[in-house]
Amino acid sequence: MLEGRVAIVTGAGRGIGRGVAMMMASRGAKVIVNDLGTSDSGQGEDLGPAEEVVKEIKDAGGDAAANMDNVAKFEGATNMVQQALKEFGRLDIVVNVAGILRDKMLHKMDPTDWQAVIDVHLGGHYNVTRAAINIFREQDYGRVINFTSTSGLIGNLGQTNYGAAKLGIIGFTRNLALECRNKNITVNAISPFAWTRMIATIPVKDEATKERVEKLKRMKPEDIAPMVTFLASEQAAHVNGQVFGVRAGEIMIFSLPRPMRSVHHTGGWTPEEVGDTAIKALEPQFVPLMPSAEMFPYDPLD
Fold first, then answer.
1. So what's the pLDDT on residue 217?
2. What is the pLDDT of residues 212-226, one digit of tens each?
3. Which residues span the domain enclosing 148?
4. Does some domain include residue 263?
5. pLDDT on residue 110
6. Is residue 280 part of a domain?
7. Phi then psi for 95, rounded to 5 degrees?
8. Which terminus, N or C, of the chain has the lesser number of Cβ atoms within 10 Å?
9. Active site residue 162
10. CATH assignment of the domain containing 57
């Protein structure tokens, strides 16, 4: 499926990124395995995880190279792209998986916790994609697969930084898809459900959370890789600007914001008329405020 293609997969030393890199390599792609080797909060560095994945790929007959650049820095993203060109002669695919968590309620969140998450997620998506996009445009071919989250699409407690970045990635995906649609470049996003070390940071304080965690533990990070690999292929040329959810054996497509209902007042509104008429008319369409987990009550593994 990916024979002759070259991919950069960020955050590929563990979890979802590792599964993506392994599967892409098994389908013929040469892979730059990027991972800074930080903790789940973005601290420390360790080349070990990236090197281990490269070894696994090569032992299985594939080809890959380790990279330890920081997605939050444009220079690091440029280095990844240059490494792909130097080692494999081309670049066709960017998969933006790398991420960190610094969960706190907003009234307790330090500016550094806000900025670090924005820089890695939203900034990382920009940096790596920007470093690659002109190569894609010049060769009239490219695939960009971004990673969002239900924390941005729906909402979650203690994740204003993460949710803001992840919803920003939807805007990034949609706009770039429009820009590139005539250049044989597709840009899509995936909201994954899988047990990873980032998800393992969820505090278990009650039975409901414990039950949710047990379900998540059954959703393997490798389950996300088939969808990513398909989107990275030539077969997915007609799939562009879409947001998919993937969990276990289930693939879903998310709706995007559209007006659900409108009211009009000739000559404009007064604040009182807004309260007396407009809000009452629109209220039946209000979107429920709930943590993202409550939007998916059933178990796809049942």
1. 72
2. 777 777 778 899 999
3. 6-256
4. no
5. 97
6. no
7. -120, 110
8. C
9. yes
10. 3.40.50.720
Q: Of 195, 203, 110, 219, whose CA–CA distance to 156 is shortest?
A: 203
In the chain, pLDDT over 90 holds for what percent of residues?
Answer: 76
Mean pLDDT of the chain: 91
Which tokens belong to 95? 């998969």
Q: Would residue 287 count as lying in a domain? A: no
Over 90: is that where the pLDDT of 297 sits?
Answer: no
H, E, C per residue of 169-218:
HHHHHHHHHHHHCCCCEEEEEEEEECCCCCHHHCCCCCHHHHHHHHHHHC
Specify the number of domains making up the chain.
Answer: 1
The two tokens of residue 289 are 């405020």
Evaluate whether 89 touches 102 at the Cβ level (below 8 Å): no
| Residue that is written with structure tokens 């024979």 in the block | 3
Residue 191 forms beta bridges with which residues? 245
Overall average pLDDT of the 194-217 stretch: 69
- Closest to 166 (Cα-Cα) out of 189, 200, 133: 189
Cα separation, 174 vs 44, in Å, equals 33
Residue 22 lies in a domain: yes
Supply the pLDDT for residue 37.
Answer: 80
Given 126, 141, 162, 298, the catalytic residue = 162
Per-residue exposure over 122-149, b if at least 16 CB sit within 10 Å of its own CB, e if not: bbbbbbbbebbbebbeeeebbbbbbbbb
Q: Which two tokens stand for residue 265?
A: 């007042």
